[in-house]
Amino acid sequence: MATATVMQTEKVPWVEMIVISFVVVLLTLGTYWRNNVWNNPIEFQLDVVKKSPHKARPYTNLGSVYAGAGIYDKALEASRKAIQLDPKAAYAYYNMSISYQNLGDLDKAIAMAKKALDIDPDLYMARYTLGGIYFENRQYEEAAEEFRAFLKLFPYFPNAHHLLGVVYTGQRKFAQAAAEFENELKVDRYHTLAHLNLGQIYWYEFQNREKALYHLKAALMIDPFLPERNQIRALVRMLEGRS
To answer: Which of 109, 211, 222, 238 is the most exposed place for a label (fewest CB within 10 A)?
Structure first.
């Protein structure tokens, strides 16, 4: 209405000018606030929760962004609220699993991941996470079972074969570990740790100098900041017969 008046007359009443200016200021502030909210995932989700305080999903999403930001106490708080509103909020249990894992409470982390999968067996990332928690808790057989189940569905998921290889290494199943590290390199040929683990397995377990050298050199070439780089280079020199 105000814009039409401006177009039809050369003079605009001062009251109308104030109204137009006030609207412009509000729009500007609104744009700033929306931009600020969109650029900050936590602020955005807090805004969504404020607008929908009786829905579980906003609290679940808030728990996810808190967990992603490493604010695990807040992630647990938001996830509990989501479960209070919807006891079948599987992803909220998954967020709690991640939070408890990072807080060092592995038993609760396992329980929450299993609860998430009981509610939603198709929440496959919970299975991937559960495999890692089991491994951290030194439950190697359970960890291997979870990673194998995950890889049946997602055989090209980055790092999954590597993690299964690490589990097999913990079980001293070195042939199976080597096979999984090789599988990881089919997914990502620049996976430094897969090369490094293969290099060590091929030498220390199988005495295969050629393959060990290939993978150790690949690891050194891919990552110039590889931890314990000097020790790895010393092993390469020894395998090459140099002092």
So the answer is: 238
54-154 CATH choice from 1.20.1250.20, 1.25.40.10, 3.30.1360.120, 1.10.4160.10: 1.25.40.10
Which listed CATH number (1.10.10.570, 1.25.40.10, 3.90.1150.10, 3.30.110.30) goes with 155-243? 1.25.40.10
| HSE toward the beta carbon, residue 82, CA cutoff 13 A | 25
| Segments in the chain forming alpha helices (H) | 2-8, 14-39, 41-51, 56-68, 72-85, 90-102, 106-119, 124-136, 140-153, 160-170, 174-187, 192-200, 209-222, 229-239
pLDDT, one tens digit per residue, over 174-233 is 999 999 999 999 999 999 999 999 999 999 999 999 999 999 999 999 999 988 899 999
Distance between alpha carbon 143 and the CA centroid of its chain, in Å? Answer: 18
**pLDDT digit string, tens, across residues 140-161:** 999 999 999 999 999 999 999 9
CB 164 within 8 A of CB 151: yes
pTM of the model: 0.79
Long-range contacts at 101-106 (CB < 8 A, ≥ 24 apart): 101/129, 101/132, 101/133, 101/136, 102/67, 102/70, 102/72, 103/72, 106/133, 106/136, 106/137
- Average pLDDT of the chain to the nearest whole number: 87
The pLDDT of residue 39: 52
